[in-house]
Queue: 4 jobs
Job 1
Amino acid sequence: MQKPSILIAIAISVLSAAMACAHTWHVEQDGSGDFLEIQDAIVAAAEGDTILVGPGHYVGQHEIPGATDHTATVAFDKPGLVLLGESVDTVRIGEDDTSANYHAIAGLGIASAAIGNVTVNGGSDGVVWEAGGLEVRHSRFENCVYGVVIYRGNGCDIFGCTFQDLERGVFAAQMSTQIFIGSCVFIGVDTGVDVQSTTSATVDSCTFSDGVLGIQYYYVDGTISDCEIYGRANHDYGRAIAIAASPDIAITDCVMDYTMNSAYAVLQVSNGASITGSGNVIRGDGQTSVLLSGENSCYDFINNEIYRARHFCLIAQAWGENTDDPPLHLDMTGNYWGTEDEALIAEWIDDHLDHPDHPNYRMVVDFVPYHGDPVRVESRSLSQVRGIFD
């Protein structure tokens, strides 16, 4: 799934309203362009202009308008600009500096901008964007602490980007809206996507490998679809997907494979979150593949493959002060549990029936009827996915 791009929207606006006023600026370090530095082109450009950046490693620190004591190599000062590098392999932006007040690219209160075909290097944030719209396409992020950081963003798309060896790939928070992350690759990123206090978030067709936490949604409504998430080998912590306090999350056609480490759970749903979904494959080698804790709801969570981890397929917990009250019932029918043996499935589900007097186990999992055979089309193997990154 691919949303209409800001780049296209800007182009339509410029062509229809002020085509004659739009200008293309060239930045070339060999002196053949209009400017030697990107920031000089940003200052000279007008809304709707395009800045084409030639080969080179662009450094320098400039004051970010509206951010005292913060600097960036590229500091946007007006909306509607398009910044395009020659290619991700030839254009590099940012210094080898990860101090808290330095960012490779920044925009505060900028209504819209598009960035593409660059490698973003260094910074506490590779790109930080606040209170506006942003599109980042076909770019690479490395040597940063966080890749893309969005605060109060409105209509932000990150598409076709690669994030490698970072603490966080994409972080969005503070009442952002319409966040789309599509066809991105996260390699060795501790937390791939972390979205908090955001409406309408989408993560689609992304691949995560050698990470600790793949995707985290906290106070979010949105979707996660067609993703493949593989954990960090020999690691004893992490989750493929963690959902908390999020009222409406759809998870579909994802592979969550943490069989290479001993993370406690692969999919965790907690603090009153509700999920729907189908076509998912969930495997782990820790305590359980799925952990439901708190008064959660899984409705229409069917046609999934949920395999037994070291001990369980599913642990279902809900708190209740009065153990005389009837337990909650959770509908998990229509799934495949790695076997057609009903007694084994019951053994691999840890719920109120196993702890009838425990105040933390006030949930019964209803799993019958269930599938006796796998229900999802076979996905790429882990070795095939790893081959993509070799």
Note: The two ends are 26 Å apart (CA to CA).
Job 2
Amino acid sequence: METSSTQLQMALVRGRVAALAQMSKADAAGFDWQEEAITQTLLTSIYPDAIVVPFNRRQEHKTGADWLWWFVDDDGCAFGMLVQAKRVTIKQTGWDFGFEYDNGNQRRSLMQTAKDLDIVPTYALYLGTPAYRGSSPLEWWNFVSARTGCFRLVSRVSGVVCGGVVSG
């Protein structure tokens, strides 16, 4: 019988594969894949092994987050994350994740809401396909961590990276 942690790991891999497939299809069709579509693909692909509470646009504006995620162990121990999804945009000056969206208000809302709820503020970063991003996830990680104060928290897999913010 699978443990709940194995089921969760398999669900996250399933979500990554589905998200990367969606980004690949969009690229192949000549579409600019959208953060909201990838988030929905990811979250529906991990269900029912991982369940999240997604926020609507009004709630996202207030909380700074796209969804709330609780990990609850078999013994009832829980770990909560308030998650804001960001997609990389490749610019001539380098990679841009829009961390300062709305003049930084989104980031500040995310930090404050997480503090109020005593949970971890987290970014889920969509890197796109290898053809789109043009470099390895490790190169990407060095770029982001040097600029944001982020550290690897949950998992780093090709296409989707989760990281928790430790400074704000």
Note: Residues 77 and 110 are 23 Å apart (CA to CA).
Job 3
Amino acid sequence: MEPLYEIDRRLRIALDEAYATAAENDGEIPEALADTIDMLEMAKDVKIGNVAMAYKNTLAEAGAVGAEAQNLTKRARSLKTRAEWLKGYLDASMDYEPYRDSKTAISWRRSKSVKITDSASFDTAPAKWYKTERSWLKPEIKADLEKGVKIDGFSIVENKNIQIK
């Protein structure tokens, strides 16, 4: 089927020809030309209906894809939560013992983080250690603690973080 713009072009040509013929023949339009105009108008109506249905179907499919994307996002979030639970389960169950087989390897790496005790106070801490809404900036605190600065209420603790590959 020809595109809508082509049907429009052919219809305009036929209508121009019909106006010119009607002017020459006291308003009479030849039957063949009238049939051509009718056929083009019907083809245009069919094409417009088809394009409108294609639009509606595409819009409905976009909505369905969006809904499926939301479902998949929820499922992915749920699976990530489960994976983190499984990781924690292994971490709590293995007593830091390495494990290796042909499919997996479990080990621990050492890391340092800041532990904030109840005696820590925003009032006595330098402003570079916390955000405006008064939450601690642990990287800044950790850097100062590692430089040897003694700070009441803060200490560096050693953690073991599970690695699954």
Note: The mean pLDDT is 90.
Job 4
Amino acid sequence: MKPTDGCKNLVLGRREMMVPSEGIKPCRFSGPGSLPSVGRVNKETRRGVMTESALSIQDNWYAVQTKPYREENAASNIRRLGLKVFLPKIRSEKAANGSRRAVVKPLFPGYLFARFRPSAHLHSISYARGVNRVLCTGHVPIPLGDEVVGAIEARVDADGLLRMQSAPLREGDQVVVSDGPFQGLEGVLERELSDGERAVILLKTVEYQARVLIEKMRLRPQTEAA
């Protein structure tokens, strides 16, 4: 198999997936849609010192770009090759018909992680249904350290979804209703219900005050809404 077989150059626009130089550097993870970076491409790597033969003796994690909206399909077909796949997902919100609803989507749309040995599986993965390419620099697939993927895996909850680190709403916080019949109204969060999904807020307007039971996903901190 030629070194270029099944491997395309790394092109991510403003995003950059970087190769480790002197060991793996700390993973910089900035949130949904932003792939982690794991070091920088040094001159030796550009010159081809990190060859396919050097990578072929061990399994590593690699980033795989999928075809649009085919992450699940690509993951399923790579698993059929007997390989480990990690497709991190998050719960997000989607606006529709003037309201918002919870949806599950990939943390990195259009990407997944697969653990494999390039000399044995690069060709098969590159031609699997749903796969666009394995991310490379030059002609070499970009390996990710176990700690890079592990840092993301460690944040996966029992429901299989990644927990995002965001400041939780607390009693007494000033909030704004983001959608629904009370959209735009401001209030104070009085208490959270035991189901963790709803809260009681005290709405404050020029004309009246009222306590309202509302879904927490419809609330935003006033500072964030501003």
Note: Confidence is low (pLDDT under 50) at residues 8-30, 38-50.
